[in-house]
Amino acid sequence: MNPSNSGAPAQRESFLRLPAVEQQTGLKKSAIYAGAKVGRFPQPVRLSRRCVVWRDSEIQQWIAERVAASQAPNATNSGAMLK
Questions:
Q1: Backbone φ/ψ region at 3: left (φ over 0), alpha (ψ -120 to 50), beta
Q2: What's the domain count of the chain?
Q3: N or C: less crowded end of the chain, CB within 10 Å?
Q4: Domain of residue 24, CATH code
Q5: Residue of 50, 58, 49, 47 whose CA lies nearest to 20
Q6: What is the CA radius of gyration of the chain?
Q7: Residue 82 lies in a domain
Q8: Residue 51 domain flag
């Protein structure tokens, strides 16, 4: 069975450029790339030699995880988002 014919509407993925990622996360370029390098932030998707984007769904998931972690009973709010 072809997954695209399953009857459910296809979820369209949208991309975010760096300024939108910075705005949504509150992080700056250096923190975003540093987090991606060590695996603590979503990896960018290279569209061309000079154009990278992030999947909106991955950024929203990352934000939700940070919120959930900050509300956990043993959470310490150290201010370091990428620790």
A1: alpha
A2: 1
A3: N
A4: 1.10.238
A5: 58
A6: 16
A7: no
A8: yes
- Domain assignment present for residue 7? The answer is no
Task: Check residue 46 and give left, alpha or beta (phi > 0: left; psi -120 to 50: alpha).
Answer: beta
What pLDDT is attached to residue 11? 78
3 DSSP 8-state letter? G
Q: Taking the model in full, what pTM does it have? A: 0.75
In a domain, residue 83? The reply is no
Note the pLDDT of residue 73. Answer: 79
Q: What are phi and psi of 46, to 5 degrees?
A: -85, 120
Strand partners, 54: 16
24: which 2 tokens? Answer: 């949504």
- Residue 9: C-alpha distances to residues 1, 14, 18, 61, 77 (Å): 16, 15, 29, 21, 40
- pLDDT tens column, 18-30: 999 999 999 999 9
Range of the domain at 51: 14-69
